[in-house]
Structure formats: C-alpha cells, structure tokens
Amino acid sequence: MSPTPRILLVNPTITSRRSARFPLALLHLAAAIERSGAGDCSIVDGNVDRDFVDRTLRMLDRGRYDMVGVTVMGGPQLAPAMAVSRAVRERHPDLPVAWGGYFPTLNTAAAIASPDVDYAIRGPGDESLPALLAALHGGAPALERIAGLSWKRDGRIVHNPSRGSPVPDDGQRLPYEKLGDPRRYLARTYLGRRTVAHQAATGCRFRCTFCGVAAMYGGATHLSSAERLDRDLAYFRHELGADSVQYFDNNFFDRERDMVPLLEVMAEHAMPWWCFARADALLNLSERTWSLVRRSRLRMAYIGAESPNGAMLKEIRKGTRPDQTVEAVKLCQRHGVIPELSFMVAPPENTEEETERTFEFIRELKRINPETEIVVYVYTPLPDASRHESDRRRRPPVAVHDLDGNPVVFPTTVEEWAQPRWVDYACHADAPWLDDRLRRRIHDFVTVLRCRYPTVQDLRSPTWAKRGLRAMAGWRYRLGRYDRPWELELANRLVRLRMPQVSGL
Ligand code: B12
Ligand code: SF4
User: Fold this and answer.
1) Which of 33, 102, 176 to mutate to test the pocket of ligand 1 (most atoms within 8 A of CB)?
2) Both 15 and 83 in a single domain?
3) Residue 320's domain spans which residues?
4) Does pTM top 0.85 for this prediction?
5) Is 467 among the domain residues?
6) Calpha distance 354→167 (Å, rounded)
7) To test ligand 2's pocket by mutation, which of 211, 223, 278, 282 has the most ligand atoms within 8 angstroms of CB?
C-alpha cells in the first residue's frame, strides 16, 4: 500500500457532454476525504470524458491507487457503472471497488451481489468513504464499525447498521479544480449564458414514500451556512465567470427562517436561479421573504405537484394538497417566477382514471398560468426494500401488480436492473401495469402539450419552429384530441423540441 491512500472517484456517463454539470456527489466526497485526512483522490467524469472506462484504466495504470469509488444512480448510469467496474476488476483484480449513491443505497442487495463490487455504501458517503479508505489502509475503524457499509466477509454479505448522515459543511468551497478546468461545466441555459450547478443544502426533512431522496436521507437535512454560500457564489462569479445558478437542493425553501440568510446572500449576488421547491413552503413565505426572492432573481421553481388527488397525496405522504398547487401557480405568477410542475401519472391503482384526471388538472393549471411548465412522469413506486431503514418499521410493505394481476417482482441483480424495461422504470418512463393503449395515450398527451406550450428552457429550436408547432397543436389541445398526433411527431422530428424530464435544465 502507498504511504497516503489514494482513491479514484468515477462518475459513469449519464448525460450528454452538453448537459454535463458539476458531479457534486464526487466533489463532496473529494472534499470529505481531504478534510478527514484519510487520503487523496482524483476524479474521472464520464459526462465529460466520453471514453471514461479507458481513461479510468489509464489512470490506474499510471498512478498508485488503493481503491476505486463509483457513483451510481439507477437507470441509464447503471450499465456504464457496471462496465467500468468490470474493466477495473479484469485489469486490477486486487483493487477494491466501492459503489455509492442512489443505486447501491436503494438496491443494496443487488449492488453488493455483483462480483465486480466489493463495498456498497448506503446513504451519504462523506463519513463512510474516508473511514473505508482508512480501514483498508490498515487504520481504524474496523470494517464492521463503518456506518452504512455493506461488504463481503468470507463470501458472506454483511450489512452494517445505519446509513451515514449528511455532514455539516466546514465553510470551505468544494475542490472544483479536481475536475481540470471547472469552466467546462458552465452551460448556456435559459437562466443565463454561463449557468453553474450548485447545492446549498443536502438531504430533505420530508419522507415522501415514492422519493429516492427520502430513502437516501431518511428525513434529515443539512443547510449551508450563509458564509459558505457567499464564498461559493463569489467564486462562481469572479473566478469562473458564471452568471446564473441551478440549485440542486432537494427542497430549497426548507424553513423560512433558515433560508432568509441564504436569500440575503443571493440577493446581493443577484444571479438568476432555479431550484426545487414545495408548494406549501412557497405559500408560507412572508411578503418580506418574497421581496428577497424577487431581488435574488429566482426565475423558476420546480415543484413536485404529483397528483390532483388529495387522498393519493396523503397516502404517499407528500404533505401538500392539490389546492396548494393551484395557489402556488398563482403566487409564482404574481412574483414573476415560472412554476415547473412535475406529475406522476398512471399509478398502480385506478391507473387510467387517475391519468385522465391529471391531464384535466394540468389543463386547468395552464388556464390559470399558461407559463407553467409541465413534466409528466409515470408513477413508479420504490421497491419496499429500498425504503430508508427508519421507514421500514413504520409502514407495512405495499404490493403492486402487473397487468395480469401478478405481484411485481423487482430485480435482484444489477444485470436485471440494467435491462431496458427496468431502466425505464427507474426513469419513471414505464411500469409493468401500463398497457399499450395507456402508454400511447400518455405519449400523445405529452406530445400535444409540449408542442402547444414549448418549454422556455428550449434554446435550441428556432422561434419560428416553436410558433409553427404551437399553431399546429392548437386545435388538438383545444378539443382534447390527443390521439395519434402524427403531424406533430413528424414536425417534432425535424425540430427536436427539448424534453425537460430527460435533460434537466
Ligand atoms: C444532478 C442530477 C442528475 C444529473 C446527473 C448527475 C451526474 N451524476 O452527473 C442528470 C440530470 C443527468 C440526472 C438524470 C436523472 N436522474 Co438525477 N438527480 C440529480 C440531482 C438533481 C442532484 C444529484 C446531486 O448531485 N446531488 C448532490 C450530492 C452531493 O448528493 P448525492 O448525489 O446524494 O451524493 C451523496 C450520496 O449519494 C453518496 N454518494 C454518491 N455517490 C457516491 C459514490 C461513492 C463511492 C460513495 C461512497 C458515496 C456516494 O455520498 C454523496 C455525498 O454525501 C438529484 C436530486 C438531488 N437534489 O439530489 C437527482 C436524482 C439523484 N436523480 C434521480 C433520477 C431517478 C434520475 C433519472 C435516472 C431519472 C429521472 N427521470 O430523473 C435521470 C436519468 C435521465 C435520463 N438520462 O434518461 C433521482 C434518484 C432517486 C432514485 N429513485 O433512484 C433523484 C434523487 C431525483 C429524485 N428526487 O427523484 N440526474
Ligand atoms: S419529494 Fe421532495 S419533499 Fe418529498 S422527500 Fe423527496 S425531495 Fe423531499
């Protein structure tokens, strides 16, 4: 082993080069490793290095590394994560490979069962990863004492108790220079010419049953200090030349009293911004805070509206009501903020009825505030085994059934999870209880909707093309004739309108 343990952190490709944003998970881990003094690290980002498997191997060949850490989100990132882990195992059979992130946290058994994965870290890795690096380097703690670690002992799989918790920041900025030139991650978006991705707080204090964030963080959140945010924003502006910010915080307006100091900093920097927010939180903000929100130049808030059905919202423990969605849409309009609402259609129960009801609700919201952006997902509940440990005891498992009435059996291996139908499931794009007719209906509705109301986030399609599509889609939308909009599909193929649910901002 080397004197200072070294880890190579890898972000397998998940998006296009153009849509690459700071790999925040790896930057947080890099900061944690440095802070703990456990070792040193380098980063390979597959969103930027398109031949990231080769690059990973080249770096391992040339440098001394004691471990490879791979961040893995379910869906399209899984196959590249498997490819890089397999390649490392073949070339360096003794080098430990650790997986962390949403996939191994939510599907631990499948991840750790892979012969190419030695360690799966559940939950935030800021404490567990440095501890693992130290343990493998012969130091304390012993493997069995590392929180949230799943590992193999003599061929048996051991799951250590409790996932890690988010770590309060130490006031230092993230080590962006580990990415080479951090300016490569700034992108032209509708917020500005050079938008940067940032996360002021980690975790979320809510426990919505369908949400991976609740499963990861178990209702805990850690906010950034105002001093740190000020330092980060100053760095983005003055060192990187950024002019706008996309905040990936799971729920930006967590508690008003905690957010005001951050908003004051943001108002001083006045860089247009986007964030995730909850309808109830926005409705509860005071007039004074809204004036800060306006001064800080919030442009768009992504709100999980999920459903027009209050009972369903209660059942999934969303904690908001449909009337709050309506009010939030009006409130945003008054304050010059575009609400971007996401909906989960086709739930396992009353699948068709709930879907049609959601379409009607979307139409109502569009009537109230035509600027409202809409993102439509298929409701794909998390497998019971994915829930946070602290939640498993609270609620009995819920069985979901396929079209034939058989209970849905979730994959147990990484190979199965990487199959197209389960990738679609992870992407909230398809579910085993959807028939072809309803699948088509959802697709058609979304096609008509996005042609009738092209997203403002689409900077690529020319204005004339968007106008043309709007006009073409007008009669269908007005009459609710969504079926088989072949002419829109044809025109769309030429224009290639953006899909916010695939590409993000
Ligand atoms: C940025 C982002 C993306 C980026 C890619 C990021 C990248 N890797 O380059 C893009 C836009 C491409 C993306 C895509 C998708 N995403 Co996404 N994404 C996010 C987002 C907004 C931020 C993630 C982030 O950077 N967080 C900041 C870091 C600090 O936190 P973290 O990721 O939790 O990291 C900590 C731990 O996970 C752990 N950890 C992470 N990696 C590792 C690695 C090791 C070795 C260790 C030890 C620990 C560890 O330690 C970290 C530090 O504490 C989250 C929501 C959120 N606010 O977190 C959703 C989120 C992660 N995405 C999600 C999903 C489902 C997707 C999609 C697969 C599907 C979809 N429809 O959204 C798509 C794929 C779309 C497609 N291509 O078809 C879900 C995952 C939940 C789940 N059920 O699995 C989330 C939580 C959104 C949500 N609320 O549902 N996403
Ligand atoms: S849906 Fe939003 S509010 Fe609910 S747990 Fe997930 S991030 Fe938090």
Assistant:
1) 102
2) yes
3) 186-398
4) yes
5) no
6) 40
7) 211
